[in-house]
Amino acid sequence: MFTLGQSDIITPSAPPMPSVHPAPNNFIPPNGSVIYPQPGITAGPPVDNADGYLDAYYYPMSDIPQVPYPVIPVYNMNQNPHGLCVIITNYHFAEHSDRKGSEIDLQRLLHLFAHLGYDVEHKKDLGSQQMKGYLDDIADRVEHSNADSFVCCILSHGDEDHIFGSDSQVVGIDDLVTPFKGSKCHDLAGKPKLFFIQSCRGGIEDESVEIFESDGRHRQPQHQHTLPSEADFFFGFATTRGCSSYRSQKQGSWYISNLYEVMMEYSRYGIDLLTMHTIVNQRVCEMTATGQTYKQCSAPVSTLRKRVVFT
């Protein structure tokens, strides 16, 4: 984990807003047209007309061949609470530096998942085997039978496939997740299991690059079908495999701060988790520390079969 200390964050300025013009007669929509939510209206990509503004031409949607949009079902999220959210935050380590700023991430996660309707538990400074034992016990909880889903947040040092315990010993991420697979935890089979992991996944510093662009236990299933044991998982990793993640001592980590802001802002409108995490990716990618060229991109991994909407 690379700690920024008191560095400020630089974010790029917003692009110019497009001016709007009626479509000329016989206007042919260009490829890649964006469909707006207003009924019957769509717009072509903005065109730079050299006056410092971007123009967008509008035309009736009826003039465009319609492509069937797939209807993706939504997981049931009707229980109150939705289920259990556990947060493990390792701050002090036997052989690693303290994770200063992690307490800010913790407070954000406690607030976020309580706000989203979960019972939240928190454990601090667990050794590697303590983490595994704790999550083994959590997977055996009987309350999962009445839950919609399960959430686990882990904040610690790490490498590509491991998390460091406070004893500076590693435990495999797969060892922590396996107890929640459908073949192991029947009460969570077919339900979304969401893991958010704030840790490094290696020591590579991702450099910036200039780009040019246009800018009940043993319950019976309701339907007689089987699911892969690996299905219905979502992993939100703070960074891509092999790379470092960044944390400010005063503002917390880039990933958790943006995850908190985006989910607090958009979950109330019924935006699904994968869409929200795409916004998180965008915001994390736009961040740069003052005087540095290092970048970071959060990395979602999903085997979800439906959309997760926090209602």
What labels would you give this structure?
311 residues, six-stranded mixed beta sheet, 5 helices, disordered N terminus, alpha/beta, five-stranded mixed beta sheet, 20 strands, globular
Detailed description of the structure:
The protein is 18% helix and 25% strand. It is built from 5 helices and 20 strands. The chain has a 6-stranded mixed β-sheet with strand order 9-8-10-13-15-20, covered by helices on one side. Strands 3, 4, 5, 6 and 7 form a 5-stranded mixed β-sheet that branches. Strand 6 and strand 7 form a beta hairpin. The model is unreliable at 1-23, 31-45 and 206-224 (pLDDT under 50).
- Strand runs, count: 20
What about the largest sheet? Answer: 6 strands, mixed
Rounded to the nearest angstrom, the radius of gyration is 22 Å
Structural class: alpha/beta
Overall pLDDT confidence: 79
Counted by DSSP, the helix tally is 5
Strand content is 25-35%
Write the layout of secondary structure elements.
Elements: E1 2-5, E2 9-10, E3 18-22, E4 34-35, E5 41-43, E6 47-48, E7 54-60, E8 83-89, H1 102-115, E9 118-124, H2 128-139, E10 149-155, E11 162-164, E12 170-172, H3 173-177, E13 193-198, E14 206-207, E15 233-237, E16 246-248, E17 252-253, H4 254-266, H5 273-285, E18 288-289, E19 294-295, E20 299-302
Parallel strand pairs: 1-16, 3-7, 8-9, 8-10, 10-13, 13-15
Antiparallel strand pairs: 2-18, 4-5, 5-7, 6-7, 11-12, 14-19, 15-20, 16-17
Helix pairs in contact: 1-4, 4-5
